[in-house]
Amino acid sequence: MISLVDAQRVVIDACPLLEPVTTAFTDAVGLVLADEVAAGEDVPPFANSAVDGYAVVASDTSVPGAELAVVGELAAGAAPPALPISTGQTIRIMTGAPIPGGADAVVMVEDSELLGGDVVRLTATVQAGTSVRAAGDDVRLGDVVFAAGTVITPPVLGVLASINARAVRAFPRARVTILSTGDELVTDGGPLAPGQIRETNQTMLAPLLEAAGCIVQPVGVVRDDEATLERALSLAAEGSDAIVTSGGVSMGDYDVVKAVLGRIAEMRWMQVAIKPAKPFAFGMIDGVPVLGLPGNPVSSLVSFELFARPALRRMMGHADPHRPRVLAIADDGVRRRPDGKVHLVRVVATFGDDGRLHVVPVSAQGSHQLAATALANALAVVDDGDGIPPGGEVSTILLT
Ligand code: AMP
Ligand code: MG
């Protein structure tokens, strides 16, 4: 058996980075920058007011109660007046409007009193610069705003828009072909013949892949026949960046994925020292990684989370491709016996009034019992041994 950490390293290190592509910024959310981004513009592009109020010459307000002549009004989007204001004058100004020439501060409207006849009394005194947002205060022309490797979150996307970076070099979404193996699997919604079950894994894994940032190419069910599977895998390798399979990797006579990969791919078949999801096959067909997940639905899910998702995220440029991991309190403990394996116990994790994360195992932990696992939002990583006593701490992988 190979340890979880070693197996993850083998898989993640073997998966090649995708070739970066120039991408319209509107399509780039969730992607990782391949190059740094420097600002081609100042943000804000001009000095403007931080408040609604009166643009003034600050020295005019050196004593509270100054009365100034209101000589104009400036809304956001308006061009500043051609002539500067002079001492004794003010312009009514809205948030985001350009600071007019001659003015160097803004008095908030809350600190003013309109006297009529276009005269305003200012009850506050301000210094030069008060409530003025200088040009380049957020981003300066030429600044490197984002380093290569930055994840383009929605706020990052907002900054790209603010500096007019309309195209960026980023790692693309991995195109992932997914297929299920198993003669017993049915997808058409019809009645089940004896021995048949309904296909579950592809249905579950396709949206998980999408949520991980991949483009999913579902193939459906491939029969447990080596020639058919070999054709399907070869075809998939031509049009995808990675292939995810479910089923056919354990010790049975019909474990065709293992057999075919052993023949046509550079394959690494693993027995990982974990429960569930012990069998895992990893291979390369013409440089395209094949991630062979086990068939039991819970094992498939756990194996996806531990191996496939991080491998694919690494291909898409994520420096840390793993889910976040935190120490949580196992209120009732987690019972287990020593068996040489790390157990990935499906748990419900919630924040308690103490501000800490607390975990409780879901009611059924069999690798075929997806209904119970479906309600879990985390995996407690319980090392080999006698488990966690009630109230003990356990390292927990957050799945959401
Ligand atoms: P296998 O890994 O192919 O030996 O399958 C292990 C168990 O998982 C068997 O009980 C299969 O019927 C079941 N199984 C395999 N693939 C799927 C699937 N796509 N959906 C639901 N169950 C599956
Ligand atoms: Mg099978």
Question: What's the short story on this structure?
Answer:
The protein is built from seven helices and 28 strands.
Mean pLDDT: 97
- Overall outline: elongated
Which class do the helix and strand fractions yield? alpha/beta
User: Can you give the helix content as a percent range?
Assistant: 10-25%
Rounded to an integer in angstroms, the radius of gyration calculated over CA atoms is 31 Å
Order of strands across the main sheet: 7-4-6-5-9-8
Strand content: 25-35%
Ligands: adenosine monophosphate, magnesium ion
**What is the number of E strands?**
28
Tally the helices: what do you get? 7
List keywords for this structure.
single chain, alpha/beta, six-stranded mixed β-sheet, binds adenosine monophosphate
Walk me through the topology.
Layout: H1 4-14, E1 21-24, E2 37-38, E3 48-49, E4 53-56, E5 66-74, E6 89-93, E7 105-108, E8 112-116, E9 119-122, E10 132-133, E11 144-146, H2 154-162, E12 167-170, E13 175-181, E14 185-186, E15 197-198, H3 201-211, E16 215-222, H4 226-238, E17 242-246, H5 256-264, E18 266-271, E19 274-275, E20 279-285, E21 288-293, H6 297-315, E22 325-330, E23 334-335, E24 342-351, E25 357-361, H7 370-373, E26 378-382, E27 387-388, E28 392-398
Helix pairs in contact: 1-6, 3-6, 4-5
